[in-house]
Amino acid sequence: MRGYRFQKPRPGDPNESTFDRLLKIFQDLLVYTSGNIDEALSWLTALDNEYNLTTPDYGISDFIKDLEEKGYIQNGENGTGKLGKIPTSKMEIALRQKALSDIFDQLKKSKRGEHNTRFSGLGDEATSETKPYNFGDKLDHINISESLRNAQINNGIDDFKLTERDLSVHETYYKSQTSTVLMIDISHSMILYGEDRITPAKKVAMALSELITTRYPHDTLDIIVFGNDAWKISIKDLPYLEVGPYHTNTVAGLELAMDILRKKKNNNKQIMMITDGKPTCIKKGKRYFKNSFGLDKGILNRTLSLAVKARKLQIPITTFMIARDPYLVQFVDQFTKANNGKAFYSSLEGLGEFVFMDYKENKRKRK
């Protein structure tokens, strides 16, 4: 199976401790093994034997001890119901932060964690422009000096008085808020043909969730996975996602995503879908209809009708297709045109940059 290819690490920060250096490698392995600490440590030990990652004074056993003392791992019940070492919430946060750093390294920190637009409106950040006071304007936005100047001009210095018509307020930038649903394909094809596609998809999802929750705190992010069905997961579940023996029910994912977004009060809404294949499954009543050969007309029509429905609801869909097969490209083109959304046909290495660039673009106020 093709996947990660490890090589001897390049020289890094000379002041970096052995623990910090091992932690970075261990975190990548932890995502790759879907949170299986024993398996990740086994990989780390094998890498140490080949590349001498540790020193005579600091070995793997010391690293494990530090992981426990620093609060990265603890004893608990793992996903199989057995007792063992499991990641802590501190490790989960660290994994998201590392993913953000790895994928969105070019991103500069925002001072306010807001999304400024080119449009003025109700907001917190004052512009250099002023306007007459209107009922409903915030009192703390009143331009005192300009208002006093207006009062002097309108009433004179001898009969000085300040009335409502004299008041002037600072214009403010409109701050847009966005509700995002991130859809992640966990069908079997995400590990099919000897290629690991789920690991980079997880890293992108972790990076995006960290970006939104820490730098855009007024936004909302919901994450769903889809295979034969679709269901919602929490941010803390992202490192542990595994591919199942599923077909690709894109319809179920889109229906759940739109149902979530209908309940959001703000106007800016979007869906981001990371997938590597065509829809191959829909549910008819209590039964599943599946067809993995070519593009099934019935499944295709149901999927395209939802793309049109999302467009009417003003919900753009950005599709990140991790494949370049001609008939898949044709499907995504049809789907994107029906929704009037966006599509990227990316390599695994470029996926993160595409996600960031499109997310940033979607922060603009839509007209």
How would you characterize this protein structure?
This protein has 367 residues and is α/β, with parallel strands linked by helices. It folds into 3 domains: 18-87; 119-174, no CATH class; 178-361, 3-Layer(aba) Sandwich (Rossmann fold), CATH 3.40.50. The chain contains 10 helices and 13 strands. The strands form 4 sheets. A 6-stranded mixed β-sheet has the order 8-7-6-9-12-13, with helices on both faces. A 3-stranded antiparallel β-sheet has the order 3-5-4. β1 (73-77) and β2 form a beta hairpin. α1 (18-32) crosses α2 (37-51) and α1 packs across α4 (89-103). The longest helix is centred in the middle third of the chain and has 18 residues, at 198-215. It is flat and about 90 Å long. The two termini are 47 Å apart. Residues 108-112 and 118-124 have low confidence and may be disordered.
In short:
The chain is of the alpha/beta class and 367 residues long. The chain contains 10 helices and 13 strands. Residues 108-112 and 118-124 have low confidence and may be disordered.
Structure keywords:
single chain; 367 residues; alpha/beta; Rossmann fold; 3 domains
* N-to-C CA distance: 47 Å
CATH topological fold name of the largest domain: Rossmann fold
Portion in strands: 15-25%
Largest sheet: 6 strands, mixed
Low-confidence stretches: 108-112, 118-124
How many independent structural domains? 3
- Largest beta sheet: strand ordering: 8-7-6-9-12-13
Q: Which class do the helix and strand fractions yield? A: alpha/beta
What oligomerization state is this entry in?
single chain
Secondary-structure element series: HHHEEHEEHEEHEEHEEEHEHEH
Residue-averaged pLDDT = 84
- What integer value in Å does the Rg equal? 26 Å
Q: CATH superfamily membership of the largest domain, which one? A: von Willebrand factor, type A domain
CATH architecture of the largest domain: 3-Layer(aba) Sandwich
CATH class of the largest domain: Alpha Beta
- How many helix segments? 10
Helix content: 25-40%
Principal-axes geometry comes out as flat
- Number of β-strand runs: 13
